[in-house]
Specification:
The complex is a heterodimer of chains A (300) and B (324). Chain A has 300 residues and is an all-alpha fold. Chain A is 51% helix and 1% strand. Chain A has a two-stranded antiparallel ribbon with strand order 1-2. Chain B is α/β, with parallel strands linked by helices. The chains are: A mainly alpha (300), B alpha/beta (324). At the A-B interface, helix 12 of A face helix 1, helix 4, helix 8 and helix 9 of B.
């Protein structure tokens, strides 16, 4: 975290954070969440942050580790010893084809385009129809699951939209646009009644569920350019969360989400007591700060 | 999300009817009685340390020189509610096991909704109460894992990755909150094992458990960890639409024992819920006889002296899951 007193965020990447990321890289080239084995998620975030900071050698070794563990179906597992294709594929797909490799990137985008929450599958819909269960309105549009064969949720849907959106900007494709649009509709249908998002459970047994700051920020970041009263209410919720934010993860995503909609309070500075404990938190702080100070669109 | 509610509710209702019938048909077999201790605890204060020490002395878990892993229940940032296991109790159990000679005691949890586990623990008061909390805490969502095949697969999960910290523990101590649950009626020491399933692989929430059958997964997880113990935080529990949106319910008890099924069955009786109508308890038991009150040796307070009715959601009340 960095801030110049009274003048908002500093324009240079925080050298302490960059140094910390470089030093916690594992020998195999990947990054741990805090310490220990390499995981795909912190590795993807660290590469994005260090690429921005010009740390090419660390990035190169990170990319090599990621390439080694890509699965035959084009997806990524959470870490090397897990034989499951998961949502982290979307995070790796945030890396451009120039970084991760043209073919690896294309296969990842194809996998992402094909994956949907199980509730959108033909088998599930047919079963529900046979059981006489009414179609739930929030199941109308497909989102993305954490792993195939399960339901779609807010976070994997938002990160998948960001990946497809980035690829679509590079190479427009109607299939990508269709999935992005469906995903955005999914998110709007899964918004909490008071505005904002939690993990994706809008209500339980008639009780309204409350939004979380980190998922509200993430979902807002994936809804760039969407105009709706719902977005306005989500922005209001996000700004309220930001006032009293004690979590680095939440602060990172709230900054990015609000920035996406031009609603980050002018001169906002993260509270000094925030603790950036994980590789993901440190990386996202660097990326958010760069996006704010340099006006670089992280996901465009 | 509604998808999980729809599936689970249906699973519950379809399972409940035959289960209720079967509970009358299954012949009680002779079983070795499990020992469960019930002690009164009026509040979360310094007296808990002595109370827990007495509780553990009564149960005498063999932990000298061993690694004990405490698994509390951390769910949401709600400091004023009764969602999470109280940190003072967890610290009292931590101190209690060290006093019994444990070589090492760790605290470990893998919350199912919130990604930032340490922020959640901080908000729940763990950093404040447990000295050097970060040094003794393991985030089970991001721990190293081992692939496990359920011994007696009841759910649809043929394989499951579980965290090495929990699998390698000499004693895994489940420390749940005593709460009602809107899908499985009551969430206690067995359901608390859901927190051992790593979200770093399965996501937030651990939706794969819902698709594989919640109650069957509870039973599979119970079988996956052979060396277990439970201390249930029933000082202030939760009733109504638990495990998150219910309301605090004072019960003023701690319940402990080595057999999680017997501990949970006892908690159900304290909550005025019939344990023989709890499907996951039946699935995890070789026979209903294991759950009978007569086959559980109760130490300390009697169930009757501490029992207090926990209000259930209306459809469970209508299904007469409660005892009179």
């Amino acid at each position: 975290m960095q801030c110049l007193s009274g003048s908002g965020e500093s324009a240079r990447p925080n050298p302490i954070s960059v140094d910390r990321l470089v030093h916690c890289q594992n020998r195999d080239g990947g990054w741990p969440f805090i310490r220990g084995a390499s995981w795909s998620e912190p590795t993807a975030y660290a590469i994005l942050a260090l690429q921005m900071a010009g740390e090419t050698d660390a990035c190169r070794r990170g990319v090599q580790w990621l390439r080694r563990i890509q699965r035959p179906d084009g997806s990524w597992p959470p870490h090397a010893s897990i034989d499951e294709s998961t949502w982290v594929t979307a995070l790796v797909a945030w890396l451009t084809p120039e970084i991760i490799g043209e073919q690896a990137h294309r296969r990842a985008i194809r996998w992402l385009t094909d994956v949907k929450g199980e509730e959108s599958s033909l088998v599930f819909r047919a079963r529900e129809w046979l059981l006489g269960n009414p179609r739930q309105p929030e199941m109308e549009f497909p989102g993305w699951p954490w792993l195939p064969g399960t339901a779609a949720w807010v976070s994997p849907t938002a990160v998948s939209i960001l990946a497809l959106q980035k690829d679509h900007a590079r190479q427009p494709d109607s299939r990508l646009q269709e999935r992005i649009d469906e995903g955005r509709k999914f998110l709007l249908l899964h918004m909490c009644r008071e505005g904002g998002w939690n993990h994706g459970s809008v209500r339980a047994l008639g009780y309204e569920s409350r939004p979380y700051p980190e998922t509200t920020g993430l979902a807002l970041a994936s809804l760039r350019g969407v105009r709706s009263p719902k977005i306005d209410s989500a922005v209001a919720v996000a700004r309220n969360f930001l006032k009293d934010c004690r979590s680095a993860d939440a602060c990172n995503w709230l900054r990015l989400g609000l920035l996406t909609h031009g609603q980050l309070p002018e001169g906002y500075c993260p509270p000094p007591e925030l603790q950036f404990r994980t590789t993901v938190e440190t990386s996202l702080d660097l990326l958010a700060t760069a996006a704010i100070t340099k006006r670089t669109a992280l996901f465009a | 999300m509604n998808i999980e509610r729809t599936l689970t509710r249906r699973a519950l209702l379809t399972a409940a009817a035959p289960a209720a019938l079967l509970s009358g048909c299954r012949q009680p077999a002779p079983v070795k009685p499990a020992s469960v201790s019930i002690v009164r605890a009026a509040a979360y204060d310094q007296r808990l340390y002595d109370t827990v020490r007495r509780l553990l002395a009564e149960q005498r878990p063999e932990v000298r020189g061993r690694h004990v892993v405490l698994k509390p229940n951390l769910v949401e940032f709600e400091p004023s509610s009764s969602i999470n296991t109280n940190p003072l109790l967890v610290h009292a159990v931590y101190e209690g096991f060290l006093a019994l000679g444990a070589a090492r005691v760790s605290i470990a949890e893998g919350p199912g909704h919130r990604r930032n586990t340490l922020d959640l623990a901080d908000a729940a008061g763990y950093f404040h109460i447990v000295p050097k909390f970060e040094d003794v805490f393991v985030d089970l969502n991001l721990d190293e894992v081992t692939r496990v095949r359920p011994q007696r697969q009841l759910s649809r999960m043929e394989k499951l990755y579980l965290p090495n910290t929990a699998l390698g523990a000499d004693l895994l101590v489940s420390i749940p909150k005593m709460k009602t649950h809107h899908w499985v009626v009551a969430t206690l020491s067995m359901k608390n094992l859901f927190g051992t399933v790593p979200s770093g692989i399965y996501g937030w929430p651990k939706n794969v458990l819902h698709w594989s059958g919640i109650e069957e997964c509870i039973a599979d997880l119970h079988a996956a960890f052979p060396r277990k113990f439970a201390v249930v935080d029933g000082i202030v529990g939760m009733e109504g639409n638990g495990p998150i949106q219910g309301v605090p319910k004072f019960a003023g008890v701690l319940v402990a024992g080595r057999d999680l099924r017997a501990v949970d069955a006892t908690c159900c009786r304290i909550m005025r819920i019939d344990p023989l109508r709890i499907h996951y308890l039946q699935l995890a038991s070789e026979s209903d006889a294991q759950l009978l009150e007569s086959n559980i040796h109760q130490a300390g307070e009697s169930i009757e002296s501490v029992a207090t009715k926990f209000r259930l959601i209306p459809e469970f009340e209508r299904a007469h899951l409660e005892t009179v």
